[in-house]
Design brief:
Structural class: alpha/beta
CATH superfamily of the largest domain: Acetyl-CoA hydrolase/transferase C-terminal domain
Strand order of the largest sheet: 13-12-11-10-14-19-23-24
Distance between the termini: 79 Å
Pathway: Lipid metabolism; butanoate metabolism
Catalytic activity: butanoate + acetyl-CoA = butanoyl-CoA + acetate
CATH architecture of the largest domain: 3-Layer(aba) Sandwich
Number of domains: 2
Shape: globular
Family: Belongs to the acetyl-CoA hydrolase/transferase family. Butyryl-CoA CoA-transferase subfamily.
Keywords: Fatty acid metabolism, Lipid metabolism, Transferase
Radius of gyration: 23 Å
CATH topology of the largest domain: Glutaconate Coenzyme A-transferase
CATH class of the largest domain: Alpha Beta
Function: Coenzyme A-transferase that converts butyryl-CoA to butyrate.
Length: about 450
């Protein structure tokens, strides 16, 4: 039987395919842009006959149909590896939970730690002449998911880009249990509007630290995107990419001729990434592009791999920072915002890289919507319940619109002084007072 015949023999309807899901099952919805659509709708239609179905996924663009059924907590539970804004809102409904992780470990979680998967269902790009479907822009941990799944249902969507890679970026028709076809637009990540003046100032402070030939990792958000835009307009050249998340900023840099990867000692000339999310421009750029390398997150985020890349520059956001140098990028107190993702992976990897630097950036203040008061993102200690994403021992550069400071090799009083120096001026005196009460301020320091 040839590949096309195999394809036809496994082709079925979404309604027929989801009949294999049983009450009590663990099932998997893939990741981000390849979260199923038609299969999700078909599974939601069965809600009255299903109970305690536990679903894994993450970085949703919209609320799954299964999570909108009546009395959802009785029927489905959503378990997220990394939360988008959609998932943050779902938490309040009582059937959505976060699974803490260091993103680099996720494939191993599937292979060694999590409960076996009865059914995995996710979108893929159309089958090629050799019988392969790619995982599109979400290679991430999908190979490990497939290895642990009893039944694999792929949802073929012609709008999913064919993302080339080096390893674990595709599945063969032989491994697939059932195939359904549907056509819907691929989920897009909103650009979030133009960079703010604060974003632009922070971006300039970071870009001046980047040498020609550096290798880049950008996180999600306005500041990393501002960095990408500024690099695209700069005189920098021969930059490389090795990142967990591929964002629009990289496309801008590539179109400006900044990305050659010529100086990379591994994966030379290729832009390595674990998953991608952004505008249609991004998906069009990734489609069938041999310059881009979709790879498992256990490779892209491996500290040992990152350390091999000289002048590695890691750029990520924070919710708030305290005077000890602890970074919270996940919550506002106990209110969940995002997840650990790979931030700590790259913070550690960048510092181990020869000439490498990791930058944690944030605005110095934010407006509290409840009180209408301006508050400092730099705090004496993190708020009760806040999550420590990066420990004080791992933080390298902190950047706000008031400057950048290197915390490596500093004692508690030195780092308190440095961190306060990049706080908003209106809050510095209080922070000095708080630091003194905590025993991390010296009288000889400039006030």
């Amino acid at each position: 039987m040839n590949y096309r015949e195999q394809y036809q023999s496994k082709l079925t309807t979404p309604e027929e395919a989801v009949k294999v899901v049983q009450s009590g099952d663990w099932i998997d919805y893939g990741w981000c842009a390849i979260t199923p659509e038609a299969l999700d709708q078909a599974l939601a239609a069965r809600y009255q006959e299903l109970y305690d179905v536990k679903v894994r996924g993450g970085v949703l663009f919209h609320k799954p149909a299964i999570m909108s059924v009546p009395d959802v907590a009785e029927h489905f539970t959503w378990n997220s590896w990394h939360m988008s804004g959609v998932e943050r809102k779902m938490i309040a409904e009582g059937a959505t939970f976060y699974a803490p992780m260091r993103y680099s470990e996720l494939p191993r979680f599937y292979r060694e730690n999590v409960a076996p998967i009865h059914v995995a269902m996710f979108q893929v790009s159309p089958m090629d002449s050799q019988g392969y479907f790619t995982f599109g822009p979400s290679a991430s941990h999908l190979q490990a998911v497939c290895e642990r799944s009893e039944i694999i249902i792929v949802e073929v969507n012609p709008n999913i880009p064919r993302c080339l890679g080096g390893m674990e970026n595709s599945i063969h028709v032989d491994q697939v249990s059932m195939i359904v076809e549907q056509e819907s637009p691929i989920g897009q990540l909103p650009a979030g509007g133009p960079a703010t003046p604060v974003d632009e100032v922070v971006a300039r402070l970071i870009v001046e630290e980047i040498p020609n030939g550096a290798c880049l990792q950008l996180g999600i958000g306005g500041m990393p995107n501002a960095v990408g835009s500024l690099i695209a307009q700069s005189d920098l050249k021969d930059l490389g990419v090795h990142t967990e998340m591929y964002v629009d900023g990289f496309v801008d840099m590539a179109m400006a001729g900044k990305l050659t990867g010529a100086k990379k000692p591994i994966d030379r000339f290729r832009q390595a990434y674990a998953f991608a999310a952004g505008s249609q421009k991004l998906y069009d750029y990734l489609n069938d592009n041999p310059a881009c390398m979709a790879a498992p997150v256990s490779y892209t985020n491996d500290v040992r791999v990152v350390a091999q890349l000289d002048n590695f520059m890691s750029i990520n956001n924070a919710v708030d920072v305290d005077l000890f140098g602890q970074v919270n990028a996940e919550s506002a107190g106990t209110k969940h915002i995002s997840g650990a993702g790979g931030q700590l992976d790259f913070v550690m990897g960048a510092y181990l890289s020869k000439g490498g630097k990791s930058f944690i950036c944030c605005s110095s203040t934010f407006m509290n919507k409840k009180t209408g008061q301006l508050e400092s993102r730099i705090k004496p200690t993190l708020d009760n319940g806040s999550i420590v994403t990066d420990t004080r021992a791992n933080t390298h550069f902190l950047v706000t619109e008031y400057g950048k400071v290197n915390l490596k090799g500093t004692s508690t009083w030195e780092r308190a002084e440095k961190i306060i120096s990049i706080a908003h001026p209106d809050f510095r005196d209080q922070l000095i007072s708080d630091a003194a009460k905590m025993g991390i301020w010296r009288r000889s320091n400039k006030r």
